[in-house]
Each structure stands twice: as structure tokens, then as C-alpha cells.
Design goal:
Low-confidence stretches of chain B: none
Order of helices and strands of chain B: EHEHHEHEHHEHEHEHEHEHEEHEEHEHEH
Largest interface: A-B, 32 and 39 residues
Order of helices and strands of chain A: HHEEHEHHEEEHHEHEHHEE
Distance between the termini of chain B: 54 Å
Mean pLDDT of chain B: 97
Shape of chain A: globular
Shape of chain B: globular
CATH topology of chain A: Rossmann fold
Strand content of chain A: 15-25%
Mean pLDDT of chain A: 96
CATH superfamily of chain A: Thiamin diphosphate (ThDP)-binding fold, Pyr/PP domains
Number of domains of chain A: 1
Oligomer: heterodimer
Helix content of chain A: 25-40%
Structural class of chain A: alpha/beta
Chain lengths: ~260, ~350
């Protein structure tokens, strides 16, 4: 056993895992423990497996994933805060044979970009929207987001979100599922191997749907923000399961244009 | 012989976009320019050329649709009027920052605020000084006839792509609504995606194997690099000096110079005639590009006249650029009506007599 050399192991037949070439070699700027890296990988793997690298155009938001274009080895555009669905609408209309997706956080998609989100969904644009919901503005330093839970502390709700004065957390995913323009709406997570597998399946479906021309596919990924929540990565995942999942329940909300009862 | 048609200024803009081979129009209704999208929706350009027309949910969305389309190297246009153009300032700054070509038509109405739906020229500052955040400029064209509304669409697209910068056609409700004879050009074919790849390698059309990917962004977190971006953009604006356009009418023997663009320039042509009937030799210099501004032409004319009157449908905006252009202590006065009022030729003449001759 002791005589086995590295070159004897590094053979194609022994390869069980590799980084998808649709991700670049750039070092991720995300905090250790954050879910963005996994979400990026899953999208990149779906693009690789579908063989659509040459005909996929991504739109990055403003927020933690503003630099998403550094990590996907595809053509990408960086949008103004909240406007990604407007860009994606035009890109898809002008390049209907291409695959177009936006990657947005909760502040971008559910606060400043609410109008763009709802109208792209309602028009039934044949695009994929990936919505990473961690209940906080991570990039700007942990402020209250539209999806921040009741009582949850943030730098602009330091005593916890008070519903009376600060309003309610917005379930935008349930809201857009009601619109006839959405074809597939699902809520996923990427904090455990089982969740990662399910999420990848959902992303694959959301991309494949674009060829059906039946409307918009929307994948929410409830994720942690360990640095913004001021917890260790493991604690933040536990907190997410105990607090985020009851309010933002996992699973499909609308499949093939039909609401799941 | 060229095809002739009687058209509204707004309709001419729409037909010009189709014939210039535009790929997309994204807009939101607002008076006094709604005919642009109404014409396009009625005309169904998708069946004529494949051009996409989409009514957006807001001007914020339509300008960002322009960003997305322009990022793909497509020829895209929007139109609006003053309050809608204010909403587009964020998007215009991003388009300028990402160095994308796009054409925006502002059919100006009186402001501030909701203002009025009548014509105005009070958006001059917003158009030529930047408008949104950061150091950037819009290439600005000011038509004074329906024919120019038509012609400047093609010129606007050409300039936008040549400099990879947003271009604004600054017009007003009078020219947008008036009907005149227009000579139409032959249809210019839209570029194929392969032709776009060839001409504009920066466009996001999908990363091909072995090729570099295209990234459209206005973000650069390192300030040393962001300064380089700014220097590159500013160097581009210096080159615009070659694109200055203006028209001189009866300036050869003029003792007094009127400077006016768009609707005001049409009024002032009559003022010149009225003045000359009274023995006052007036000439008109009409800036056609407002940015780049015809400063050299105005400076040259200033050496030959006794005074300059800037005539604008605003409280005095272009007059500041005229004063910056004139190197001597020549009297430069302003006359304006605003809030939707168009001045009459005789009141302009009266203003010229009062400000430059009398007193």
C-alpha cells in the first residue's frame, strides 16, 4: 500500500469529482460558510450538463453576488440594483434561442426591484430567475431586508424587526406564483447534501423550461448569512432550519403552471 | 425618387428606427411622445424586419431593457418625455459607465415636476451636463424639423456605436406633434448575430469555445482602475470635437447673433426676417449637436457681432455654454419663455432690441 504514488491515483477512471469548467478559477469573495458558492456551482454544473455554455447569458445583481460574473465562465451582464429582470427581458426577447438567467438577492429582487420582478413574471418572460434569500443585506453590512423575519436583528433593526413599525417580511415567491406568467416556482436550500441535490434538480428544470416557452421559472434558495447573522456557519444553518424554513417552507409551489395545493 | 410621407415628428422617429435596422424599442407611455410606441405597435415591425417592440412597466424598466439589449450589441432605442427621462437617469449613467450604445429620444415638456404637457427646452442641463451620477456625457442632437427627427435617428445610432456611448435626441412637444413632409430612406437590414460578433466583440451573445467571454459591467472596486476607466471615457469625449454640427443662417453680414436650437431656432428664423425688415442685421447660429457644443463656431462669430442673444424655452440654460464659449466681454443676453409657452418672433426681436441695442 505504501508504494502507491500520486500519479497512480490521478487517472481518469479514478475521477469521482471535479470542478465544472463553467466555473472560472477566480477565488470566490464570499464569506466562508455562505451558500452563494454552492448555488453558483449548481448553476454552472447545470449549464455544463445541458451543454449550453455557449448560449447562456447571465445577469448579475447588486448585492453580495454583484461579482457573480467573475465566477461563471459565460457571457454576463451586471445590472443596476433591482433591474436584472428588465435586462434579462430584453436579452431574451432579442436572443430568443439563448438561455437567460438572473441571479438576485432578497434586497435586489424583493425591495428595490419589486416592479421589475413582478412584471417580468407577469409577462411570462421565458427566463430563469434564481433568488437567494438570506433575510438580510449582506454586502452593505447586515441591514434589514424585505425578507427579514419578525424579531430578527439586523444593523437597521438592532432590537429586532418590529412588524408594526417596519412592516412584514415579504413572501415574494408565493406572490409571484399567483401570476399566470410563472410556470415553475420552487423554494430550495443548499445547506445539506440532500438539499443540494434537490436544488440542482430544480435548477435543471428551471433552465430546461426555457425551451418550452411557457413562462418564467423561479427558484428561491433560502440561504444563510453567517457573518451578517453574526453566527458560525454551522449555527447559522441550524438557525435557518429552525427559523427561516417554518416561514419560508421548502418545496415546489407551482409546477408546470399549476399551483401545488 | 425618394419615398415621401406626411408624418408627425414622433411617427418619423418610429419609422426611422425601423428603417435604420433597429433591433428593439422599449418604452413607456407619456405625453407628448406616446405616438412613437403607438406607431410601432400598429406597424408591427417584427413582421417587417424582426424588430422587437415592448411596452415596459416603467421608464426605469425600459432604460434597463436598453442596457440589456445594448449589451448584446443590438441597436436599441427608447423615447420618453421629461418626467420619464428623469426616471431614466440611473440607467443612462450605467449605460455610459458600461460604455454601451443606445439611443434615447426626449420629447421635452414643461417642468419642473409634473409640469405641463406643452413644449419646453428646460431639460438642456439634464441632457448635456450628465443628468445621472458620475462623470459622463450624452451625445446630444437637437432636431428642428420632422425631417431631422427622422434623419437623426440613424445618425444617433451611428454615433452611439462609434463611441459606445448613449445618444439623446433632445426635441420637444411641438416638433414631436407637428406634421411635415419627410423623405424616407431605403430599409437598412438588421445585423445578424454573426455580424454583431464580428463588429462588436464585446457583445454578450454567448461565449464560444476557445473565445474570451464578454462581461458588461460598470463596476470597478479598485479606485486606481476606476480612475483609468474614467480617463478612457473622458478621452473618448475629447474625440467628439469632430462631431460638432451646427447651422448658420444669414451670419455673414450679421451685427447681432441669435443662438437657438430646435423649436426656438424655427421661431428665430422669422425674427431675423422681421429684424432685417427694420434694418437690424441679425444672424442665427443653430447648434445641432448640443454636446459636443459648437463653442468654436460661436467664438468665431462673436468676433464679428455686437452682441449675442440666446433664445431658449427655458429660464436660461444654454446661455451658460454660450458665455463659456465667448472669449471676450461681448454682451451675451438670454431670452426665454417657459412652462410650455413658445415665444413669438416679434417678442424675440423686442428682447434683442431691449437687451443688445437699446439701453
Amino acid at each position: 500500500m505504501a508504494d502507491i504514488q500520486t500519479q497512480d491515483i490521478r487517472k481518469p477512471e479514478n475521477l469521482v469529482y471535479r470542478k465544472t469548467p463553467v466555473l472560472t478559477d477566480n477565488v470566490l469573495h464570499y464569506c466562508p460558510g455562505c451558500g452563494h458558492g454552492t448555488a453558483h456551482r449548481l448553476i454552472a454544473e447545470v449549464i455544463e450538463e445541458m451543454g449550453i455554455q455557449g448560449k447562456t447569458i447571465g445577469v448579475a445583481p447588486v448585492g453580495c453576488s454583484v461579482l457573480a460574473y467573475n465566477y461563471f465562465d459565460i457571457d454576463m451582464q451586471e445590472a443596476a440594483h433591482g433591474r436584472a429582470p428588465a435586462l434579462a427581458t430584453a436579452i431574451k426577447r432579442l436572443l430568443p434561442e439563448h438561455y437567460v438567467f438572473t441571479y438576485q438577492g432578497d434586497g435586489d429582487l424583493a425591495a428595490i426591484g419589486t416592479a421589475e420582478t413582478i412584471h417580468a413574471c407577469n409577462r411570462g418572460e421565458n427566463i430563469t430567475v434564481v433568488f437567494v434569500n438570506n433575510g438580510i443585506y449582506g454586502m452593505t453590512g447586515g441591514q434589514m431586508a424585505p425578507t427579514t423575519l419578525e424579531g430578527m436583528k439586523s444593523s437597521t433593526s438592532p432590537y429586532g424587526r418590529d412588524l408594526k413599525s417596519m412592516g412584514n417580511p415579504l413572501k415574494i415567491t408565493e406572490l409571484i406564483a399567483q401570476l399566470p406568467g410563472t410556470y415553475f416556482v420552487t423554494r430550495q436550500a443548499v445547506h445539506k447534501p440532500g438539499a443540494v441535490r434537490k436544488c440542482k434538480k430544480a435548477l435543471r428544470k428551471a433552465f430546461e423550461n426555457q425551451t418550452l416557452e411557457k413562462g418564467l421559472s423561479f427558484v428561491e434558495i433560502v440561504s444563510n448569512c453567517n457573518s451578517g447573522w453574526k453566527m458560525t456557519p454551522l449555527d447559522s444553518n441550524k438557525w435557518m432550519e429552525e427559523n427561516m424554513f417554518p416561514f419560508y417552507p421548502m418545496g415546489d409551489i407551482k409546477v408546470d403552471g399549476e399551483l401545488i395545493k | 425618387m425618394k419615398e415621401l410621407r406626411l408624418m408627425k415628428g414622433n411617427e418619423a422617429v418610429a419609422e426611422a428606427a425601423i428603417r435604420a435596422g433597429a433591433d428593439g424599442y422599449f418604452g413607456y407611455p407619456i405625453t407628448p411622445q406616446s405616438e412613437v410606441m403607438e406607431y410601432l405597435m400598429t406597424e408591427r415591425p417584427h413582421e417587417r424586419t424582426g424588430m422587437v417592440v415592448l411596452q415596459a412597466e416603467s421608464e426605469i424598466a425600459s432604460i434597463n431593457m436598453l442596457y440589456g439589449g445594448a449589451g448584446c450589441g443590438k441597436k436599441v432605442m427608447t423615447s420618453s418625455s421629461s418626467p420619464g427621462i428623469s426616471l431614466m437617469q440611473e440607467g443612462l449613467s450605467y449605460i455610459a459607465g458600461a460604455e454601451l450604445p443606445a439611443l434615447v429620444v426626449n420629447v421635452v415638456r414643461g417642468g419642473p415636476g409634473l409640469g405641463t404637457i406643452q413644449p419646453s427646452q428646460a431639460d438642456y442641463f439634464q441632457t448635456v451636463k450628465g443628468g445621472g451620477h458620475g462623470d459622463y456625457r450624452l451625445i446630444s442632437l437637437a432636431p428642428c424639423s420632422v425631417q431631422e427627427m427622422y434623419d437623426f435617428v440613424k445618425i444617433g445610432f451611428d454615433l452611439a456605436f462609434k463611441y459606445r456611448n448613449p445618444v439623446m435626441i433632445l426635441t420637444d412637444g411641438a416638433i414631436g406633434q407637428m406634421m411635415e413632409r419627410v423623405e424616407l430612406d431605403e430599409q437598412v437590414p438588421r445585423l445578424t448575430d454573426e455580424q454583431i460578433r464580428e463588429k462588436y466583440p464585446w457583445a454578450t451573445l454567448g461565449k464560444l469555445p476557445g473565445k474570451h467571454r464578454s462581461i458588461i459591467t460598470s463596476l470597478e472596486l479598485e479606485s486606481a482602475k476606476q480612475e483609468q476607466v474614467n480617463l478612457r471615457i473622458q478621452a473618448k469625449y475629447k474625440l467628439l470635437e469632430d462631431e460638432v454640427r451646427y447651422e448658420e443662417i444669414q451670419c455673414e453680414d450679421a451685427e447681432y447673433l441669435v443662438v437657438a436650437y430646435g423649436t426656438s431656432a424655427r421661431i428665430c428664423q422669422k425674427t431675423i426676417q422681421l429684424g432685417r425688415e427694420k434694418g437690424i442685421k441679425i444672424g442665427l447660429l443653430r447648434p445641432i449637436t448640443l454636446y459636443p457644443f459648437p463653442s468654436k463656431a460661436i467664438a468665431a462669430a462673436a468676433t464679428r457681432v455686437k452682441g449675442i442673444l440666446s433664445v431658449e424655452m427655458s429660464a436660461g440654460q444654454m446661455v451658460e455654454d454660450i458665455r463659456l464659449s465667448v472669449p471676450c466681454d461681448l454682451k451675451v443676453a438670454h431670452f426665454g419663455r417657459f412652462g410650455g409657452i413658445i415665444p413669438s418672433p416679434s417678442e424675440v426681436l423686442e428682447a434683442l432690441e431691449n437687451n443688445l441695442i437699446g439701453g
